[in-house]
Amino acid sequence: MDLLTGNPILLQTVIIGGTGLICAAILAIAARFLHVHEDPRIEAVTALLPGVNCGACGYAGCSDYAKHIILDALPVNLCSPGGEATVRKIAAFMGVTATLTERQVAVILCKGDDALATRTTLYNGIADCGAAQQIGGNGKACRYGCMGLGSCARICPVGAIELVNGLAVVHPDLCISCGRCVGTCPRRLIKMVPESRFIHILCSSQDAGPDVRKICKVGCIACTLCAKVVNGVGITMRNNLAVMDYSVPVTNEETITKCPQLTIVKRSGTKEGAA
Amino acid sequence: MKTLRALFTPRGGIHPRYFKEPSAGLAIETLPLPKLFLVSLSQHLGAPSRPLVKKGDLVLRGQPIAEPAGYVSAWVHAPTSGVVKSVDSRLTANGQLAGVVTIEADGLDKAVESDPVNGDWTTRPVRELVDEVLKAGIVGMGGAGFPTQVKLLPPPGKTIQTLIVNGAECEPYLTADHRLMLEQADRIWQGVLILKRILGAGQVRVVIEDNKPDAVAAMEQAMKGTDGDVELVIVKTKYPQGAEKQLIYSVTRREVPSGGLPMDVGALVENVGTAAAIQAAIVDRRPLTERVVSVSGDALRTPRNVLARIGTPFSDLIAFCGGLTEATAKILNGGPMMGIAQSSITVGINKTTSGLLALSQARVPLFTSMPCISCGRCVTACPSGLLPCTLSENMEAENLEAAEDLNILDCIECGACAFECPSHRPLVQHMRQGKTKVMQRRKQREAEAKKATPT
Q1: Across all residues in chain A, what is the average pLDDT?
Q2: 3-state secondary structure of B333
Q3: Which residues on chain A are in Cβ contact (under 8 Å) with B432?
Q4: Confidence of residue B263 (pLDDT cuts 50, 70, 90)
Q5: Which of A129, A143, A180, A207 to mutate to test the interface with B (most CBs of B within 10 A)?
Q6: ipTM over 0.85
Q7: Which of A11, A153, B258, B444 could form a cystine bridge with A161, CB 3.0-4.6 A?
Q8: B341/A126 CB distance under 8 A
Q9: C-alpha distance from A126 to closest chain B C-alpha (Å)
Q10: What pLDDT is stored for residue A274 in this prediction?
Q11: Could B426 and A125 be called an inter-chain contact, meaning their C-beta atoms sit closer than 8 Å?
Q12: Which residues of B are less than 8 Å from A137 in CB distance?
C-alpha cells in the first residue's frame, strides 16, 4: 500500500490502466452479445460501386444503395457514375441480368457568354444563381439565359461544370450523370441527354426574334430553318424557340450549318468524342 | 381624441440618414398621362391575378382587367382608357417575372360608369363595404401589398380591438405618405373611420414618427372632435419603426408571436395610403388606379412627389423629374433599405411602389463581402431579435434545419443588419434566400406527411 500512495506515478498508471482494462472487458462482452449480423454481400456490393456518394440512384450514398440492392432486390442499373462496367459487375455478383441504359450527360441550353450576350446592370450580391433570380437575375439582359454565377458548378461532385467567361459549360467526358445540377438551375437550363446525341440547340430564350437579336448574338430567333431541315421531326418550334426532342434521333448536320445565329452546335457527349 | 407620445419603442433598429429634405417640402404633382402603361398582374402578395382582357381589347379607366385567382389575391383595373397591346410575361418592378398587361393610352382617359351608390357608408351593411374594398383592388400600400379584404375578415374567434394607422414612414428618402397626410388628411381620416366601422374596432391609433410635426398637426386637425378611444401616437424616429410588428409593439406593447399575425394580439395595421384608397373606393367609388410616389435620390435632377397611375413606366416618372444625372448607379423600386434594384426602367409602378430612387455611385459603393467577425452589431440592430450573423453562415453552409430552428421565418427583411455589418455581408439576401428555401422545405415535409398518413 505504501508503495502506491507514496508513488503518484505508479498510482496513476494503475488507476488509468485499470479503468482501461475494465472498459475493454465490457466492450469485448458487448461485442459478443450485441453483435448485429450484417449481410456480407452489402459490403461487397459497396466495394463494387464507385464511391462518389452522389445520390444519382436516389439513395443516400453508395452503401445505402448497396443495402437496398441486397435487401429490396432493387434493379442494379441505377448507378449512373459507374456506367456499364459497374452494372455488369454487380449483375454478375448478384446473378441477375441487368438492362443497360445509355449514359446520360448534362447539357446547358445556353451559349451566351459575356462576349456574346449583353449585360445591362452590375450585380453585387451573393454569387448564387437562386439568390440572383429572386431579384430578377444578375443583370444579364436575357432573362432566360445562364447567369454564370456557378451554382451548378459548385454542386457538381466531380467538377465537370466549368465557368467560362460568365457561362457554365459541361465537360461531357467528366460528367457522371448524377443529375444534381439539373435542380440547382433556377432558370431550368440543364437537361440530361443521351451521350450519343451530338447536335444541341443551345438556347432557351422565348423572346421574339428581334428582341433576341438586340441582346444576344447567339440566341435562337425562331427562324424555323432547323425545324424545316428535319421536317419538324425531332425539332419543334415552341414559344419562339426551336426545341430539340431528345427522344427522337436527329443526326442531320445540315441543322447546324443552316442556323444563322450559330445557336446549334455539334458537341458529342461520349468520352471519346469530347473535344 | 388626444395626442400623446409612445412610451415604448421596439428593440433594435438603426438611425440612418433620412434624406427626406429634397422632397418633403414639395406638394404632390399629377403626372401627365403617359402613352404606355405596363400593369403587372402580381402587384400583391398571394396568387397572381387572372387576366380578363386580351390583345386588341378596348378598356376604360377603372375597368377590371384581371380578377383574383384565389382567396389571397386582388382585382387589377385599367389605369386609363386605351387599347390592350399585349398580355405576356415580363420582368416586373418587384424583380419577378409576372403577367403584364400593356395598355396603349388613347389620351381620352374615359372612365367606366360606376355603380350607383346604395346609401351612405355609415349605414350600409359591413359585408357590402368589404366586397367593395375587394372589387376596388385594394392592397396594403405600405410595401407588402397584402390584399386588404383578407385582413378585414378575421377568422371566427379573432377580434380586432385596435386599428393602427401607419403614418410612420421610417424608410429614408420616402415622403409619399408624409405628403398625403399633409394634403389629404381628411380623406385619410374618413378612410380610417370606414375601416373602424368594418372591423368594429374600439380603439384607433394613428401613428406618426416625431420627425414629421407638420403631418402630426394636419392629422390632428382632421381628427379633431372625433369621439371614442381615438389617439394620435407620436413615436420615436428610428428604422424600422413603421414595420407592422414593431409598430404594434410601440403602440400596444404587445408582441406578435413568432409565426403569428397581428390579429393574434387583437391589432390590425393599415397604411395611410391604404386608408385613402379605401375612402376613394367607397365614397368616391373609384377603384385603385393611382398612388403617390416619391421620386427622389441624389442622381435625379429634380426630386418630386408625384401622383401617378398604376402601371406608369419608371422611365416616364424619371423624365417628369428632370431625368437622371450621369452619375446614376442604381434605380430602386421603393426605399434604399427595402427597395428592389431594377435592371430596366421599362417596368410599370405597382400599387406598392411608394418610392422610385435613383442613387449615384457615392451612395451605393461596390463592396466585397468578407467573413463574419462576430462583432454582434447585426444582433443589436435586428428588430425581430434574430441572429443575422449565424443565420447568414447557416445559409452559406446550406444548413436549412439550423436556420429554421433559429426562426429565420421571423425575419422582416428590413435590412438593419446589413446596414450595420462592418464586413459588408449580404445578410438580407441570405435571409431572403433562406426564407424561400425553408418555406419550400416545410411545404415538402408537409406534403410527405400528408402522403404518409392515410386519410
Answers
A1: 88
A2: strand
A3: 131, 134
A4: very high
A5: A143
A6: no
A7: A153
A8: no
A9: 7
A10: 43
A11: yes
A12: 91, 343
Domain ranges in chain B are 1-29+115-366, 377-452
Rounded-to-integer distance, Cα B248 and Cα A209, Å: 52
Q: Is pLDDT of A275 > 50?
A: no
- What single string gives the DSSP state of each residue in B185-247? HHHHHHHHHHHHHHHT-SEEEEEEETT-HHHHHHHHHHHTT--SEEEEEEE---BTTTSHHHH
Q: What percent of chain A has pLDDT over 70?
A: 97
Beta strands in A223-272 (DSSP E): 235-238, 241-244, 264-266
pLDDT at A273: 46
A20 in contact with B at a CB cutoff of 8 Å? no
* DSSP per-residue string spanning B83-145: EEEEEEEEE-TTSSEEEEEEEEE-S--PBPPPPPP-S-TTTS-HHHHHHHHHHTT-B-TTTT-
Residue B454 has pLDDT above 70, yes or no: no
**B177 phi, psi to nearest 5 deg:** -70, -40
Chain A residues with CB-CB distance to B315 below 8 A: none
Whether residues B367 and A137 touch (CB distance < 8 A) is answered with: no
Residue in chain B nearest A121 by alpha carbon: B343
Do the Cβ atoms of A126 and B95 come within 8 Å?
no
Give whole-number Cα distances, B166 to B41, B241, B308, B412, in Å: 26, 10, 21, 16
Across the interface, do B432 and A134 touch by the CB < 8 Å criterion?
yes
pLDDT tens for each residue of A94-110:
888 878 888 889 999 99
Residue with cell 458529342: A268
Query: For residues B296 and B20, what is the distance between their CA atoms, to the nearest angstrom?
Result: 9
pLDDT average, residue stretch B239-268: 93
Partner-chain contact A126 B96, CB within 8 Å? no
CB of A183 within 8 Å of a chain B CB? The answer is no
- Judged by CB atoms closer than 8 Å, whether chains meet at A139 and B343 is answered as yes
- Cβ atoms of residues A52 and A62 within 8 Å: yes
Of B340, B430, B437, which is closest to A135 when you measure between CB atoms? B340
Contact B432 A122 (CB under 8 A): no
Radius of gyration of chain A from its Cα atoms, rounded to whole angstroms: 28
The string of pLDDT tens digits covering residues A62-93 is: 999 999 988 888 888 888 888 888 888 888 88
A125 and chain B: CB distance < 8 Å anywhere? yes
Domains and CATH numbers, chain A: 40-94 (1.10.15.40), 104-266 (no CATH)
How large is the average pLDDT for residues B297-302? Answer: 92
For an interface test with A, the pick among B97, B360, B364, B433 (most A C-beta atoms closer than 10 Å) comes out as: B433
CA-nearest residue to A208 within chain B is B88
Would you state the cell numbers that stand for residue A200, as one nine-digit string?
444541341
- What cell does B220 get? 390632428
As separate numbers, helices (DSSP H) first and strands (DSSP E) second, chain B gives 14, 18
Quote the pLDDT of residue A271: 62
Contact B366 A137 (CB under 8 A): no
Residues A202-225 have a mean pLDDT of 92
Q: Residues B423-448: pLDDT tens digits?
A: 999 999 999 999 999 999 999 999 98
Kindly indicate the confidence band of residue B455, based on its pLDDT and cuts at 50, 70 and 90.
low
Least confident of B74-78, B141-145, B201-205, B378-382: B141-145
